[in-house]
Specification:
Chain A: Belongs to the leucine-binding protein family. The complex is a heterodimer of chains A (about 425) and B (about 290). Chain A is built from 14 helices and 15 strands. With about 425 residues, chain A is α/β, with parallel strands linked by helices. In chain A, about 55% of the residues are buried. The chains are: A alpha/beta (about 425), B mainly alpha (about 290). The interface between A and B is large, with 38 and 37 residues.
Chain lengths: ~425, ~290
Amino acid sequence: MKLLGRSAALATAGALLAGCGAGGPGGGGGKISDDKIVLAVLTDQSGVYADLSGENAVRAVEMAVADFKKKYGDKAVAKEIEVVSADHQNKPEIANTKARELYDRQQADMIVDVPTSSAALAVANVAKGKKRVFISVGAATTALTGEQCNKYTFHYGYNSYMLAHGTGTALTKSGSENWYLVYPDYAFGQDMEKTFSESIKAAGGTVVKSDPTPFPNDNFSTFLLKAPNLDPKPDVIGAMQAGGDLVNLVKQYNEYKLRDKGVGLAVGLMFITDIHSLGSKALEGTRFTDFWYWNQDDDNRAWADRFNKETGARPTAVHAGDYSAALQYLEAVQRAGTDASDPVVKELEGHKVNDMFTSTGTIRAEDHLLVHDSYLAEVKPESEVAEPWDYEKIVDTIPAAEAFQPADPACKL
Amino acid sequence: MLQQAFNGLVGGAFYALLALGLAVIFGMLGVVNFAHGAFYMLGAFGSYVLLDSFGVNFWIALPLVPLVLGVTGVAVERLFIRRLAPLDPLYNFLFTFGLALILQDLVKRQYGVQSQPYPRPSALNGSIDLGLFTYPAYQVFVLAVSLVVCGAVWFVLARTRVGMIVRASTERPELTRALGIDVARWVTPVFGFGIALAGFAGVLAAPMRAVNPLMGADLIVTVFAVVVIGGLGSVFGSVAAGFAVGLVSALGNYYVPSLSQTLVFILMAAVLLWRPAGLFGREEATL
């Protein structure tokens, strides 16, 4: 009660200070609340996802703000656009508290990024209660646009269906019919195992065996050595591990020379930062689904060069998604002429996205999922790596309509 | 099957080296060193930094990194552990736990959370034909080296004068002191040695495991279980239990993957029910 009282007082104070009486978040207005737009990046600043999103996600959003200001100059709907950030440490309860603080105390109009599914679901819940916009980029769970969807939450970039469907279907159809799945024994891994199995079976393949592995785990040798002796022998090991566990698994996969024994490797989720830490040699030939790659075309590369100048690193697909999400949000505010949530949400629904991140995107009105082309990528052999971070080869494009699942009837906005 | 057992032994080699250090430190100082995993991590990071920033290879890192960490251990013992020793054991527990968190975060600050690449030494890049199956040469090397080190430690403790003093001062500090031996003098080097062993395991791990700030924290829980199974303070017990736990988890992964995480702790519970002081432990710490 106390908290509610304080936040209501703050909101009122904010509205009075602005002197425009926008009527608080969600009200129609036609103006900008407290004379500025506040974008909040809620991210992991010190944990396992700090490299793939983290501090650099804040830089990406700042780049979007700079581009927006450059494009509209004096015609921009708000004079001041502020970027704030907070660390959720991948914990849902902290994400919940931080999201409330950002919306209430820092007057954030929207929250973006939020890796870790459980944390993103917590923020979605806050966004629903506060009636303010939340665009998830870093989280994988399909629940954000499924049974737990809401009017103010958008899912931008990728999800576990896209990963499983892309890699599982494409590899099965290209001849890797027998799979051995190893997945970390917690929510993310179990979810991935389920979607991968479904995709493989739907494409006519077989899951020979699927084993849960401890999480975290530094020794995968038992599972790897088991692979060539399974009957029938699997064509490919589907590894659902992430971060340090994935690195352990790949190192050991190479030590036991499984590729020479005719067992390939496919990974469920991998970012360019993972390849960087393993070296492309260790992962040579590994296939996975990606949704943006910095060196794919000139546009991407130009943006990645700017990003590199600011941060000293190449952007992950999540960074690019953060940039696009922030930019599209600002564009929606520009079109609506206000930062009040309801008109902005209306502008985003059904909007076609065409920017550096994707030229094929549509924000689906039924469930707020951004559907766009995704890609089957392969890690280049070391001999083809022309410069640092140049690790990926795009083998195939999976059209938007196939890449993502149809809208879940369980989602009622 | 045999190959799986061999696998378990290689995994067990790391448990054994870490448990050995923990056991020696506990036996001599009565300190449960929660920072042990962090020193293992520093060992791996030390070899990464040497290679990445100075071009120093694995073979030089293997003795150098443990040496540096051993000296660091000596400093830690002198500056902190010694002062906390007369107080409630809880203080040392909290200190080592805090130290582990600080070390982890410092590394995280500097190098981030992504794993760092560390190549296998080129001399050990191939596979060795062990008769029944071929096995990566590096893994064979790890197993051999850790057996030699564990054997050497056992030999020193069981057969030499230094070992006798260390054993005597662990078991009967008062009596040993009465015989004119300066027990306190041996405490510091033993602590440093235990830390050096952890660093050594870390260097060995760098080419085959993910080098990241959390690698020690992930491992240390299992190592504590190993020490408890072996019997607190028992050197031989720690080594035997290290290899045994490696075997059990490898076979567990093979037959019942979903249980493999809990298997070690089921084993620990079973051992404690049967022998409350652990397999080789007695009421007082012994060899």
